[in-house]
Amino acid sequence: MRGRLLLLLLAACCAGAAEESSSRRRLFARPTAIGIPVPGVAAAPKPPAQEPVPPKPPAQEPVPPKPPAQEPVPPKPPAQEPVLPKPPAQEPALPPAQEPATSKPPAQEPATAKLPPAQEPAALVTSPPAAEPSSALSGGSCPDAAAILKRHDDERAKNGAPPLAWSPDLAAAAQDWADGCKLQSSGQGYGENQGLGSAWRSCAAAMPLWLGGKGSYQPGGTPPSGALAWTQVVWKGSKEVGCGLSQCPDKGGFVVCFYDPPGNVNGQFDANVGGQGQGGTSPANTAG
């Protein structure tokens, strides 16, 4: 639009200039009568009217080519959280089916057999008490307290002696002495059996050593020292026993059993073991 206005202004200016130039030529031309030619003077021909030269349009700066349209980058979708698998639906816990309550018949008193008046009820036969389970045989550190108690009772039964009861107090005292690793009499007033073996890991491991003296016992004579461990095991007057085990450095397993009341009492071998032996003055019997 601005370019067209400039062209119109330039054309108007050129037309005005041409008209002014023509007017000036007419003012300075020689006077002539209208329609009467002047003799001897030739009329100068009029120059042809020149068309106004249109002004050149201003040079236009080259328009830079438009860059190719870039495709719009689609926005990244929001990160989706991983969908966790749904836990399986749990069936509602149903209460246990209750059995319909049935009416209980009236309790009937057990029928008792009537004894004839002339007969008395038979006496109950009691058996000797069974050995207590090992979990109840506390006091010492024997891993096989029940086993060594059973070995005692089996040997005593062969000799007509009643079974022994396990004493936690005797077991604790025997354990204390075993921890000292001294193979000698403790002097505590109990019946004693002691034994030391390099590979012993249980209390019952000492039983074959103690029972091995049975062959050297002769009724009616003085028991040799090698038989005193066996005579204490089968001593009928002893009622309780308790044992302990300790691992002594450079020696092995040390097993100690205490008995109460003590056995191997002079003058009582005949009543408690059999025969008329007069030996066994010491209640302690050691073997290594």
From TrEMBL:
Protein name, per record: SCP domain-containing protein
UniProt keyword terms in alphabetical order: Signal
Any Pfam family matching the protein: CAP
InterPro entries named among the record's database cross-references: CAP_dom, CAP_sf, CRISP-related
Pro residues: compositionally biased ranges: 45-98
Signal peptide span: 1-18
Organism: Chlorella vulgaris (Green alga)
Amino acid composition bias (Low complexity), ranges on this chain: 127-136
